[in-house]
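Z., the sequence and structure:
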Amino acid sequence: MEGEIREGLLQETHEAEESLVRKVWTESKKLWVVAGPAIFTRITMFGLFVISQAFIGHIGNTEMAALSLVFHILGRFSIGILMGMSSGLETLCGQAFGAKQYHMLGIYLQRSWLVELGVSVLIIPLFIFSAPILQSLGQTKDISQMANIISIWYIPILVSYVFSFTLQMYLQTQSKNMIITWLAAASLAVHAIGSWVLSTKAHLGLAGVMVSMIVSNWIPVVGQLVFVFYGGCPKTWTGFSVQAFFDLWPVIKLSLSSGVMLCLEIWYNAALILLTGTMDDAETSINALSVCLNINGWELMLSFGFLAAAGVRVSNELGKGSSKAAKFAIVVVVCTSLAIGIVIWALVLVFRHRVSYIFSDSAEVANATSHLSVLLAFSLLLNSVQPVLSGVAVGAGWQGTVAYVNLICYYIVGLPLGILFGFVGGYKVKGIWLGMICGTAVQTLVLSFLTWRTDWEKQV
């Protein structure tokens, strides 16, 4: 009798383990349907900048530092606003798709276009008058003037973000990701070839790289618009509608809270570049930090892919009314992203002495980059979890709450500590970055606690 009971318990345990493995496998497939293309698309988007930096960095250190300022300050400022606002569209479309209210996705997309185009018009003057703005923030005159030239070229790229981010959110909530992936691959290939031909062979230098970057950023937009307008989304796109002009306030409210949430996160690294630019030997410091932030950016693109997947999976399951599935999706996506983050953390520590030569020929930059590698490694580890938890917030519609969390953790804890360690403590770039890592760590703990304590039945 006892043997039969033991055998029955072992069989039940084995079935439970099989069931868990099967559940993880099923959820992982759903996760990667969204995360794979999302990661590739975001890596491609960041790759456009890295290719540009690789070509411009070999033109001169001033040009490289100027491009870093434009991308990490002005570019990230605009990306933070527009991508953040688009994450509000992800919440609306994801929950509507889960609830099978398909007709609303096209309406939400059009409303987001109206709102974000209006915001982009307000941002453009920052690019036109970037030189005096950067100088007033403590940057050198030479770098600021070069940055102004680059920022004028950047304006068409800014406008492309309005359509690029919203179309990506709209399509990925429907798991129509392959069109995004193929267009992203085409964009990266065009930019690599275009930069080489225009900058090196045609001897157009900086102008050649920027022309190539503009064309490459608009390729995915045009391709996705053609896909949507000509039958790619028959259930969710039924043409332009006057309904898009009504009930804009809920979209504006969610878009703004989403924008603030992501902006506070993206601007945090911009503050690191900005503070570094006020130090002695700013050019070398900015270039070394830029190399580190490029690596950090590559890993963030992975995490932002998982952020997108977390947002889609959580919003879809909440839309369906399944709290257990939403909670299980959160566990799977966080564990997957953390595992990848640990691998990247190890690789950075192993290859820390060589990586900077991809972006610059300077031995000084390589040496400075090596000294920052330990901080970079731990930033990568934190960034493998924190953006994913932000994706959970997007899926659940908590953007307003997380905006307050980001404000406190980043700008009341992290940034003051960075200034204290860097300027008062005399640790310079290392001190600034260390303080800001503390802010990110606190934010990760707070978001983990919020996710753990949430009543998901109530969220449904």
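The radius of gyration is 23 Å. The chain has one domain: 25-459.

Let me know what you think.
H.
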